[in-house]
Amino acid sequence: MIEHQAGSHKTGNVTTHSINRREWIRRLGIGSVAAAIAGGLPSLAFGGGGTGRRPVQRLIVMFSPNGVVPESFWPEQAGDLATLPEILQPLDEFRSRTLVLHGVDNRVRGDGDDHMRGMSCLLTGIELSPGNIQGGGNTPSGWPRGLSIDQEIANGYQSNAETRCRFGSLEFGVLVPDRADVWTRMVYTGANRPVAPISDPKQMFRKLFGAMEDRESLASVLDVVSADFQAIRSSISAEDRHLLDDQLEWIHQTGQRVQVEKESEQIVPPEIDTGCELNDAHMPEISACQQDLLVAAMRMNMTRIATLQYTNAVGNARMNFLGIEEGHHELSHDPDEKKESVEKLVRINRWYCEQLAGLARRLDSTPEPGGEGTMLDHTTIIWTNELGKGNSHTLSNIPMVLVGGGLGWRQQECLKFKHLSHNRLWISLAQSMGHSITTFGNPKLSRGGNVEELYA
């Protein structure tokens, strides 16, 4: 058992520094939700934010499908991001904390078509196994042969008491189909082990804050958490008491966002979210709910690793809320000469960039719990895609936009590489987050190790 030095806060006649975290929480007799939140309190030194510890680092991988419009996405020149292309303009307020990587290629080949390898090899960097999933190419495939980089880092974090969280990772979805195949899954815990993202905000809320189906209302959950907080208050610093109160209010606000109000004015979990039905028309509302929950989970140190997946490879969402009737995937196949389709694709990808900016804004408006700056200063969001360009199905120049200060890499730049294997990018990412690996995915595609040019 690992003992956490937590000062000399007393629980009855027992000092917390003389017992381990699990025993301390057991003696308090608090529930799982309050225990998860207590585990991230700086004064208890469970969250890694204490003096002499490595600063908190978080990772969010955000995915959108079907490639981009290169001339409206990529900066014209390498170097300073003095101006942003049309698609990236929503990031202007975060330009000083943005890094654009051009020339990163998914060089994994083998079974499956480009959409299949673009999606399921994106975070794994390794070939698909032989199988019977038939795509647009001539060779069917199975699942990838290894785990994804988010799970690699999460495993490292969970093996260390300083970085361990209630959830090693959280997988958020926005309109991701329920079917399980290589077009819909990008997270893998190992070979042939896909992880399904949660696309229903209600379901994610239940996962984070308790089994709502076992309670009469959200209010009862909050009553239990509030009572548990009273047990914690006498054992923590004044600063953390304020943080607990703030987090309880956050749970109230987030819960109200993803629930409905009945005639009795009692908030209860509905079967279908009012105003947030799981269909294309409500895509913006679903996105906002999921982002609120994601930031709440990270703020309470429930996890430090997350993915946010918008639809899927060959995703064909119809974004009528943008005035676009055609499906995204069908538009992405139109030739470049069809200017109307190109203009619609620019609007779609700009909307995804607005979601990225919205997530960054949520993090930047939230002070880092028990630390300096904002949560964005300790978080890196990577926005990526399964293709470089939709109508050519290229796996070259995969979009890679990094926002936030969690890696310590230089920012407000566009770095241009010549066919850099994305395996090397994932190695660099893991190493910058304190997880020492020298190879990832296909060892041949890992040659060269980390990307020295990324460091300031």
Task: Describe the 3D structure.
The chain folds into two domains: 58-199 and 278-454, Alkaline Phosphatase, subunit A (3-Layer(aba) Sandwich); 214-277. The chain is 31% helix and 13% strand. The protein is built from twelve helices and 14 strands. The protein has helices spanning 21-28, 32-38, 70-73, 114-120, 149-158, 201-209, 218-233, 238-258, 283-299, 328-332, 339-364, 422-432, and strands spanning 10-11, 14-15, 58-63, 79-80, 98-105, 170-174, 187-190, 193-195, 260-261, 267-268, 305-310, 379-384, 400-403, 413-421.
What's the gist of this structure?
By secondary structure, the protein is an alpha/beta fold. It has helices at 21-28, 32-38, 70-73, 114-120, 149-158, 201-209, 218-233, 238-258, 283-299, 328-332, 339-364, 422-432, and strands at residues 10-11, 14-15, 58-63, 79-80, 98-105, 170-174, 187-190, 193-195, 260-261, 267-268, 305-310, 379-384, 400-403, 413-421.
